[in-house]
Amino acid sequence: MLIHNDDYTTKAFVVEVLVKIFQQVQWTKAARIMWHTHENGTGLCGIYPFEVAETKVNMVTEAARDSGFPLKLTIEED
């Protein structure tokens, strides 16, 4: 599952999503993923079975919209 950079979603929100929804228990690892995404346009936020990935995309999308952010995640099948 990939997280995509945009010009509106705050870095703090991305780190929060990575910690809360993707269980990145170490803030430093979440921050590394966020910076990689910021610098490269996309970042790997996890590898999950399809149904789990769909659920996480929906959770993140809803949280982002509720906070006024256009954050986008995509699922790529292996």
Structural summary, described in words:
By secondary structure, this protein is mainly α. Helix content is 53%, strand content 12%. Helix 1 (11-20) packs across helix 2. The chain is globular and about 25 Å long. The mean pLDDT is 93.
Question: Secondary structure elements and their pairing?
Answer:
Elements: E1 2-4, H1 11-20, H2 27-40, E2 42-44, H3 50-66, E3 72-74
Antiparallel strand pairs: 1-2, 1-3
Helix pairs in contact: 1-2
Quick overview:
The chain has 78 residues and is mainly alpha-helical.
Radius of gyration: 11 Å
**Which range does the strand content fall in?**
5-15%
Integer average pLDDT: 93
Could you give a short account of the major beta sheet? 3 strands, antiparallel
Form type: globular
Count of DSSP-assigned helices: 3
Binned, the helix content reads: 40-55%
> What is the ordering of alpha helices and beta strands?
EHHEHE
**Which residue ranges are poorly predicted, with pLDDT under 50 across at least 5 consecutive positions?**
none
Overall number of strands:
3
Structural class: mainly alpha
Question: Biggest sheet: strands side by side, in what order?
Answer: 2-1-3
Measured between the Cα atoms of the first and last residue, the distance is: 10 Å
List keywords for this structure.
78 residues, mainly alpha, 3-stranded antiparallel beta sheet
